[in-house]
């Protein structure tokens, strides 16, 4: 099964390592592999260390941490050969690295098949002057982001978060903007639910990945859908969505699953595998801000995508 990759970018001192620390400390049973530039900044409690070998620190909670030395693709290949295999891979970039170059590397066909880039997260210090967003490197970090996390709000002046949101909006950055107090970001935004393991029955109600702001809704169908109708439905849903991810079979290409992703205002499609026996032909997870999208509205739009509906 492919291992989704989270790429964490942001300028020097923005708080990237704090985010990685929080993910490792609150893995809740998930096997997360973190690829970092500096072991020293990773806050690994002594009681969590289970062992170290070959440049990899194993943690007692099932996570591992390795230092990014040399070729990124070689590092990822090493992680993917580990037993047990990680369930998620988090890559923390250097604060002076252009993430566009790393994204291009991750588009390598071999890596893309085994470790697809799931989310690009840009961490931005909320106290940063708006003028700093004119910097070419910061612009590049924002441009590739699916999620922008505002950090250090507790240290910034009152209203800094609102001003930063307005400055980001002025740049027409389509990413979802969230607050990252002490590195905490809803995991469901970073790694949407694994739709290939979705239940065959629709969930009775929304699940909330973060009690303050977001909720998760899902939709399934045992019939193939019309791709043009889906494109129209997503166009209507887009202003209300933070993320979406799903697998579906279309009438245009029967017997073949398509992988759908929506993040940062961008929708992508890629060919998937043969449908697994006993699973719905269509299963899509949607994440929206609380109150923005009802299950009845979602059902109505998505039912209109079903072939023959």
UniProtKB/TrEMBL annotation:
It holds the Pfam family cobW. CDD domains: CobW-like. InterPro entries: CobW-likC_sf, CobW-like_C, CobW/HypB/UreG_nucleotide-bd, P-loop_NTPase, Zinc-reg_GTPase_activator. It catalyses: GTP + H2O = GDP + phosphate + H(+). The keyword Lipid biosynthesis does not apply. GO terms for molecular function: hydrolase activity; nucleotide binding. Keywords: Chaperone, Hydrolase, Nucleotide-binding. One of its GO terms (cellular component) is cytoplasm. Transmembrane segments: none annotated. Belongs to the SIMIBI class G3E GTPase family. ZNG1 subfamily. Zinc chaperone that directly transfers zinc cofactor to target proteins, thereby activating them. Zinc is transferred from the CXCC motif in the GTPase domain to the zinc binding site in target proteins in a process requiring GTP hydrolysis. This is G3E family GTPase. It comes from Bradyrhizobium sacchari.
């Amino acid at each position: 099964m492919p291992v989704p990759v989270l790429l964490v970018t942001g300028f020097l001192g923005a708080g990237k390592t704090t985010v990685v620390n929080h993910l490792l400390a609150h893995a809740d049973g998930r096997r997360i592999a973190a690829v970092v530039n500096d072991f020293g900044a990773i806050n690994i409690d002594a009681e969590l260390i289970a062992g170290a070998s070959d440049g990899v620190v194993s943690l007692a909670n099932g996570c591992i941490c390795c230092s990014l030395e040399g070729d990124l693709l070689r590092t990822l290949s090493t992680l993917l050969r580990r037993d047990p295999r990680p369930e998620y891979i988090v890559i923390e970039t250097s604060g002076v690295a252009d993430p566009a170059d790393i994204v291009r590397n991750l588009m390598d066909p071999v890596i893309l098949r085994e470790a697809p880039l799931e989310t690009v997260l840009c961490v931005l210090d909320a106290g940063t002057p708006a003028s700093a967003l004119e910097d070419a490197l910061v612009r590049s970090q924002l441009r590739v982001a699916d999620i922008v996390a505002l950090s250090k709000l507790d240290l910034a002046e009152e209203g800094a978060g609102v001003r930063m949101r307005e400055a980001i909006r002025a740049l027409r950055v389509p990413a979802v903007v969230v607050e990252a107090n002490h590195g905490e970001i809803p995991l469901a935004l970073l790694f949407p639910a694994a739709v290939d393991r979705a239940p065959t029955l629709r969930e009775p109600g929304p699940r909330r990945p973060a009690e303050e702001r977001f909720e998760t809704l899902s939709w399934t169908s045992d019939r193939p859908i019309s791709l043009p109708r889906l494109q129209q439905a997503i166009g209507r849903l887009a202003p209300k969505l933070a993320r979406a991810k799903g697998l579906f079979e279309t009438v245009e290409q029967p017997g073949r699953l398509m992988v759908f992703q929506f993040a940062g205002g961008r929708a992508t499609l890629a060919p998937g595998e043969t449908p697994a026996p006993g699973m719905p032909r269509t299963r899509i997870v949607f994440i929206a801000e609380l109150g923005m999208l009802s299950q009845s509205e979602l059902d109505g739009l998505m039912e209109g995508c079903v072939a023959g509906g």
